[in-house]
C-alpha cells in the first residue's frame, strides 16, 4: 500500500496556503507536518481526509497491486475535536464508532481493549463529558483502535496529553506502523517517532515543499 500526494494546492478564501505539496508514504512510514499557526496544516489534513477540496493536485491510496483504495474507507481522521458525544458513556461513544466505521473486512480491538490500550481501564461506564481534557483525547485516540484502518490522519493528536500519555500515544503509532500502517500527523510537539518524514509548511503562502527524510 502507498499514500501518494501530488502537487497539492490548498486555499482558504482568497489565500493560497500551500502549493506543490507532494509526498509518498509506504507501509510503516509516518509523515509529520509542521509549521506556524495558520500555515495550513489542518487545511492540508482535511484535504487528505477528503473533507475539503484541493485547489489542484491529488491524494490517493493504492494497495500493493496498485489498485485504488477509497480514502474514506481506509483512513481514520482525528481532528482538533474529539468527535464524541459528551452525554453518552465512553463505551457508547466507542460502540457507535465501531459500528459506524466497520467495513466488511475491518477488524479492530474490542471497545474494552481499546480503552485499556489508552490506559483508561475503568472509565467505560462514565459519560464522556466527565473525563478530563487529556482523558477525552485518549478516548478519541481509542477510536482509531476499535476499527483497523491502515492510514491515520491526525491533527494535533497529543494536544492536552501529559508526557506519559504522549509516550503512550507514540507507542500506539509505532505499533500501527509496525503492523503495516501509515500515519500522517500535524503537530507542534515532537511525537517521539524515529525515523519520520517531515513536511514543513512555511506559512508564507507561496513556498513549494518536499517531504524529506529526517530523524526527529
Ligand atoms: N473555514 C475557514 N474559512 C476561511 N478561512 C479559514 C477557515 N479555516 C481556516 N481558515 C484560515 O486558513 C488558514 C490556515 O488555517 P489552518 O487551520 O489550516 O492552519 P494550521 O496550520 O492548522 O494552524 P494551527 O497551527 O493554528 O492549528 C488560517 O489563516 C485560517 O484563518
Task: Summarize this structure briefly.
By secondary structure, the protein is α/β, with parallel strands linked by helices. It is 28% helix and 28% strand. It is globular and about 45 Å long.
Q: How many helices? A: 6
What is the CA–CA distance across the termini?
Answer: 24 Å
Roughly what percent helix?
A: 25-40%
Instruction: Name the poorly predicted regions.
Output: 206-216
Name its key features.
single chain; 216 residues; alpha/beta; six-stranded mixed sheet; five-stranded mixed sheet; 6 helices; globular; disordered C terminus; binds adenosine-5'-triphosphate; nucleotide-binding; ATP binding
Topology:
Blueprint: E1 2-12, E2 15-26, E3 30-34, H1 41-48, E4 56-62, E5 68-69, H2 71-74, E6 75-78, H3 90-101, H4 111-117, H5 133-146, E7 151-155, H6 163-178, E8 182-186, E9 196-200, E10 209-210, E11 212-214
Parallel strand pairs: 2-10, 3-8, 3-9, 6-7, 7-8
Antiparallel strand pairs: 1-2, 1-4, 4-5, 9-11
Adenosine-5'-triphosphate binds next to α1.
Structure description:
- The chain has six helices and eleven strands.
- It is of the alpha/beta class and 216 residues long.
- Strand 7 (151-155), helix 6 (163-178) and strand 8 form a beta-alpha-beta unit.
- Helix 3 packs parallel to helix 5 and helix 4 (111-117) crosses helix 5.
- The longest helix has 16 residues, at 163-178.
- It is globular, with a radius of gyration of 17 Å.
- Residues 206-216 have low confidence and may be disordered.
- The chain binds adenosine-5'-triphosphate (ATP).
- This is Heme ABC exporter ATP-binding protein CcmA.
